[in-house]
């Protein structure tokens, strides 16, 4: 059996991210527009439509016919202008001191949309994806300086010489640091472990597991621990950028493998969804 479609999409996204990192100097002038369109059409639009339709359930039934496109939700059409204006304003003021707020809102919406649409089917696929991301992150932070004379990942995140960073990360200012600067976290550091945590939640629900004997709580704690270790090493190394997945992958993927092995459920986690009986109760 081949890899599921959702996994092919994730691997494709990883490849695209790799290419963007490698050619960031050529792509940086287009990166803002690319993320802008992606967030408007898929991220922020998806989140707003979902939230509003859940609050006002009648909105789900109101549709309109568009020429050459077909039937769409009226709510969807109403949300598009707001998302467009929001994203354009952020792009126009992206170098302002408050631009991080808009960037984080757009980024969070994008990641929610990604986690909702791309789902890991089992630990077998998660191991391939997260292991590749683990090696990828370490290479571009620590090994790429030996090849390109600078850390490509850090240069992409900071914007390099031009200062026009690819906005595929969350930024929070160092409010109490007299030197200023931002704490940053790339989308991949949230999405890849997040897909595994989302899988653990679906697995727990399908197996009717409790909080303590399930996996979701422990993987969430593991993610927090991994993030803490990332920033701890960051400060111990005098602010040298760290590959967050180097800490997050062992604290999430490693944790679920160890827990599954101790509980005798590792084969079920590994092959989940591959046999008909495992599909019962799948969310």
TrEMBL record:
GO terms for biological process: membrane protein proteolysis. InterPro entries: Peptidase_A22B_SPP, Preselin/SPP. Its main location: membrane. The keyword Cytoplasm does not apply. SMART domains: PSN. Keywords: Hydrolase, Membrane, Transmembrane, Transmembrane helix. Pfam families: Peptidase_A22B. GO terms for cellular component: cytoplasmic side of endoplasmic reticulum membrane; Golgi-associated vesicle membrane; lumenal side of endoplasmic reticulum membrane; lysosomal membrane. The chain crosses the membrane at residues 32-56, 68-92, 127-146, 182-203, 215-237, 244-262. GO terms for molecular function: aspartic endopeptidase activity, intramembrane cleaving. This is Uncharacterized protein. It comes from Aegilops tauschii subsp. strangulata (Goatgrass).
């Amino acid at each position: 059996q081949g890899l599921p479609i959702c996994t092919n999409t994730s691997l494709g996204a990883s490849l695209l991210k790799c290419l963007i990192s490698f050619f960031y100097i050529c792509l940086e002038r287009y990166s803002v527009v690319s993320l802008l369109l992606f967030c408007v059409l898929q991220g922020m639009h998806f989140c707003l439509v979902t939230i509003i339709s859940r609050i006002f359930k009648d909105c789900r039934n109101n549709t309109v016919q568009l020429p050459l496109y077909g039937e769409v939700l009226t709510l969807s059409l109403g949300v598009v202008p707001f998302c467009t204006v929001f994203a354009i304003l952020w792009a126009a003021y992206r170098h302002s001191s408050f631009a991080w707020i808009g960037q984080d809102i757009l980024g969070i919406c994008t990641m929610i949309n990604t986690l909702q649409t791309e789902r890991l089917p089992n630990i077998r696929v998660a191991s391939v994806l997260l292991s590749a991301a683990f090696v990828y992150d370490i290479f571009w932070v620590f090994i790429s300086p030996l090849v390109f004379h600078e850390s490509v990942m850090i240069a992409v995140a900071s914007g390099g010489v031009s200062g026009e960073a690819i906005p595929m990360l969350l930024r929070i200012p160092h409010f109490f640091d007299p030197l200023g600067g931002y704490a940053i976290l790339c989308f991949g550091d949230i999405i890849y472990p997040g897909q595994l945590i989302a899988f653990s939640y679906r697995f727990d629900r399908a197996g009717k597991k409790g909080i303590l004997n399930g996996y979701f709580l422990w993987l969430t704690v593991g993610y927090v621990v991994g993030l803490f270790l990332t920033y701890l090493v960051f400060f111990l190394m005098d602010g040298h950028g760290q590959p967050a997945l180097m800490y997050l992958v062992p604290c999430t993927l490693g944790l679920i493998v160890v827990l599954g092995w101790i509980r005798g459920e590792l084969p079920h986690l590994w092959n989940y969804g591959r046999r008909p009986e495992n599909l019962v109760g799948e969310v």
